[in-house]
Amino acid sequence: MKYRTLGANGPEVSAIGLGCMGMSVAYGVPDEEESQHTLDRAYETGLTFLDTADAYGQGANEELVGRWLRRHARERDRMVVATKFGLRHDASTGRVGDVDTSADYVPVACRASLRRLGVEHIDLYYAHRRDPATPVEETVGAMSRLVAAGLVRHIGLSEVSAATLRTAHAVHPISAVQVEYSLFTRGVVEGELLATCRDLGIAVVAYSPLGRGMLTGAVSSRGDLDPDDNRRRWPRFADENIQRNLVLVQAVREVAERIGCSPAQAALAWLLAEGDDIVPIPGTKRRRYLEENVAAVALSLTEADRELLRRAVPEEAVAGERYPESALKRLGH
What we know:
One of its GO terms (molecular function) is oxidoreductase activity. The strands form three sheets. Strands 3-4-5-8-9-10-11-12 form an eight-stranded parallel beta sheet. Helix 5 packs parallel to helix 6. A hairpin with a 6-residue loop joins strand 1 and strand 2. By secondary structure, it is an alpha/beta fold. It has one domain (3-211, 264-299): NADP-dependent oxidoreductase domain (TIM Barrel), CATH 3.20.20. It is built from eleven helices and twelve strands. Helices cover 38% and strands 15% of the residues.
């Protein structure tokens, strides 16, 4: 394993982290036993960066990670555990409803996450989304008080604009911005947001670095997805878009074969090569995929390899938005 530092003031983490959401929700039927084995294997590989959120399964994912942490209490200080707050669930539907980043809610959400995780502090605490009606100074000010109280070590934001990031960083140092970033989704990061992160010394934590599994090549049609898989609601997996996107996946596969790796490894190695300040957090609940992902750290891409991968997925050729319309409204504030 190789390691990177999250921003100018953040912790050292493994160059690839583990997104834990799919262990509890979104991608088919959960498998607690295999998920725990996957977390064990992650630790054995030297992976030290775990990502969860209070919104994943309405706290169920934090509880799952917490059960693993209790089994590995002696290694707690080695692990960097990140979680998020701000997406509140509608009690009547069970789905995410309002975004709440008010100063009053911040400590309430934090203490609930600490309880579910079974830890005394959160290593990296993100605002999952931002309510534009709440000044970011108010939110980050409340988060900074958690740092002062010893409940949180470092602060992050997710899916915010460059202007919001600058304003927030002036209140308290931001260690990381979590944002969707992959060969399939580049424009949201590359440009003003990435330039701002580098100017301020803030890391980019790339979620969905494999295009929600599309870039692995494991999905050949919507029929491969379980009936309760959230991707059935995602535009890029819609009937009118998926076959066009799979043509791009095949182009990535051809480049990967030339490099001598899997499509997933090529996609992750491409992200890693974009800068030491970028840390992808591919999600999986299975050991075999974890091992495949971690192996990407050892790959060394040439400039020609990186350019071929970019050309394989022209951004304008990707069919469909990255989120349904209701979720898109919560991004970039």
